Amino acid sequence: MERPNAWKAYDEAALAELDQLCDDYRAFISQNKTERECVVSSVKLAEAAGYVNLADAVAEGRELKAGDKVYAVSHNKTLMLVNLGTQPLEQGMNILGAHIDSPRLDLKQNPLYEAGDMAYLDTHYYGGVKAYHWVATPLALHGVICKKDGSTVTVAVGEEAGDPVFCISDLLIHLASDQMKKPASEAVDHENLDVIVGGRPVVIEGSDDDEPKEPVKQMLLDILKEKYDVEEEDFLSAELEVVPAGPARDMGFDRSMILGYGQDDRVCAYTSLAAQLAVENVERTSCTLLVDKEEIGSVGASGMTSRFFENTVAEIMALTGNDSPLALRRCLASSRMLSSDVSAGFDQLYADRFEKKNAAIMGHGLCFNKYTGSRGKSGSNDADAEYLALVRDIMDEAGVAFQTCELGRIGAGGGGTIAYILAEYGMQVIDSGVAVLSMHSLYEVTNKADVYEAYRGYKAFIKRA
C-alpha cells in the first residue's frame, strides 16, 4: 500500500509555492543554528504576523478574545505561539509541537588550553552523535557569553565569507593502522573532540621573563578581549555551541532536496511555524510549540517536561476570563496534537535496517508514525486508531500527500519524541513530520516535496482538527 510520489501531482502554481517555502526554509536553517537563534528569528516572524508578547498582555491585564495572537518565550530557548479561536479554550486546542535543538558539541565550562603550540577548546557532545563525523570538517562557533555585570555577548563565527572557521583534527591514515581496527563507536574518542582555535603565539617585547607561559592561548585571549571584551573566566557563564560551518544547500541536479545541518528537527519546527502564521482565523485555538532539550530527554526548564506549556495556557485562559483549574485540565485533555518530528527516510544503501512497506519513502509526503520507541514500542506514544482515522480524513480532504511509517525495522534501534509528554494530559497525539536521510549527521537530507507537504498538512490540521 505504497503512497504515490508527491511530485507527480504538482502544477506550476504548487511548484512556485514549494520553491518559495523551501527557499525560506533553507535560509532559516542557514542563519539559525542554535535554539536561541531559532527563537529570536521566529519571534521576529511572529511579530510581523501580528503576534504580541504575552508578558505584555499579562502586565497590562489585557483581556484576550477570539482573533488575538500571542507568543511566550521561556529562557530564550523555547517559544509558544497561540492564535485564539472562536470556540472556548475549555474545548481544547489544535497543537503543533517541534523541537529546535539539534545534536552538536558544547564547550565545557573550562574549555581553553594550549598544547603543542596550538590553542584548543574542549567540548562535550550534546545528543546522539557519531564522533568520527566531527573531525576534519569546517566548524563554526555560535552562542552567548554572559558576564557578571549582566551584559550578554552574542557570538557567531565561521558563517560569513570572511570569517575564520575551526576544526577538530583527525589522525592521518599513515599512522592509523590501530585506529582502523576499532569499531566505529571507538575510532574517535568523544573526549578528543577538541576544537583547534589558534596556532600563533603572542610576542611581547622585552626579556624572556615577560613571555607568557602559554603564548598561543594568550594570543587567543587577547583577541577575545579586543573583539568581545571578555576574560577567560567568562567562559564559566557561557553557552557556546560548535556546529558545522556554512549554509544549507540545494541538493541534486534537479534541486529536489536540501542538504543542511540541524534539519532534525528544524524542518518540522519551521513548517509548523509557517503553518501557524499562515492560518489567520481559526475556530479551535491553534498553538505551536518550539521546544528545547528534546535530544537529551526533553528535560530542564526549557524542555517539554517543564511546566512552561501548562503555565502559559493557564495565563492565557485567565486573560480570557476563565482561570478555573478544572477548565485548564479540560482544555489540555480535549486538545489534539501533531508531535512534529522527523522520521527516518528509507535508504537503499542500508535497506536491511528498514522494513520497506512501513518505511518513510523520500518524496512521498508527510510522515505519520503511530508509534516510535524501541523494541516492543518501549517509551513511545502509541496513537489510537480513532485519532489516526481523523487525521487521515483531514489530510485526504485537504489533498495532502502523506504516508505512514515506523523508525526502522524491529530490533534495529529506535527513537523518541515529545509526543508521550503531551499525551500525559489525556490529549490525542501522533508523531508527524518529514523523512530525513543521514539523521544526526553534520549534513542531513530532506526532500522538498516532503517539506511542502508537511507545511500543507500542518495548515490543514490547524484548520480542522
Description:
This protein has 465 residues and is of the alpha/beta class. It folds into 2 domains: 6-102 and 261-464, Aminopeptidase (3-Layer(aba) Sandwich); 104-244, Aminopeptidase i, Domain 2, CATH 2.30.250.10. 29% of the residues lie in helices and 24% in strands. It has 11 helices and 22 strands. The chain has helices at residues 12-31, 35-48, 54-60, 184-187, 215-228, 263-278, 308-319, 325-334, 385-398, 419-423, 448-464; strands at 52-53, 69-74, 78-83, 93-99, 104-115, 118-126, 139-146, 152-157, 195-198, 238-244, 249-251, 257-260, 285-291, 336-340, 343-344, 366-369, 373-374, 402-404, 414-415, 428-433, 435-436, 444-447. The strands form 5 sheets. Strands 1-2-3-13-4-14-20-16-18 form a 9-stranded mixed beta sheet, sandwiched between helices. Helix 6 (263-278) packs across helix 11. The protein is globular. The mean pLDDT is 94.
Characteristics:
465 residues, nine-stranded mixed sheet, six-stranded antiparallel sheet, 11 helices, 22 strands, 29% helix, 24% strand
